[in-house]
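Dear Dr. K.,

Following up on our conversation at the group meeting, I've run the structure prediction for MBL fold metallo-hydrolase from Novosphingobium arvoryzae. I'm pasting the input sequence below exactly as I used it, so you can double-check it against your construct before we proceed with anything downstream. Let me know if the numbering doesn't match what you have in your notebook.
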Amino acid sequence: MDQGLRLYAFNCGWFQCRPGYFVEGDEGDYLRGPVPAYLIEHPRGRALFDTGMGVRYRRDLADALPADKFGLQWFEGMDIATRLRAIAVDPGSVNWIINSHLHIDHCGGNALLPNASVIIQRREWDAARANPEPELYEAQDFDTGQPIKLIDGEHDLFGDGTVRIVPTWGHTHGHQSVIVKLAKGDVLLAGDCCYTERNLDVMVLPRATADVEQGLLTFERLAKARAGGTTILYGHDGKQWAHVHEGVPFDLGN
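The predicted structure tokens came back this morning:
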């Protein structure tokens, strides 16, 4: 493993919902989960896994969503371009965008990375373009004129096994995740194939699952990976995110 590989985590907004939206059947007060993006720095280039939301979801703090309202939002300074500049990374230096899928809260910052090519599963790209849906698949987020690299299944981004894109069908028919091989172990960036650690603990899919059979198979693979020592960074897990240090190299030793 090349010692030049680094992973950085950023929160690019908030997702508020009832517990039952994440884990079918759960009840309780509204939860607030992060909308993560991850920078992967490799000696041969920079890649981002997911990019957050578009500008239409920006709010002022004085106009924030009430604590008991379902929705998405981000505030000044939380967009992915600002997050990158805060650690002295020029958004124009990003070579690749790896979108887990093309829902609005995962590709809304794509246009802020003008020189990046987008890597997406062919089946996800086809589904998003064929079935636009407000507040789900919106072309203004993903059809931004950037070069698109369509893949089918697994893809080794740098050809050395350190950054592997893997299919994790279920939440959408073309969902993908990334496994980053850091010096101290593997980290799996889940995206929405698994919203929270609790989903995996109880093996219960979220309500928003396009293919239940594939989603359960994905959960089985995640559970096996976790048992084997892989660290999973879940899609919208507020409890986990409270322990994630943003803007610094991710360290499995912490």
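Two things stood out to me. The radius of gyration is 17 Å. The first strand starts at residue 6 and ends at 17.

Best regards,
J.T.
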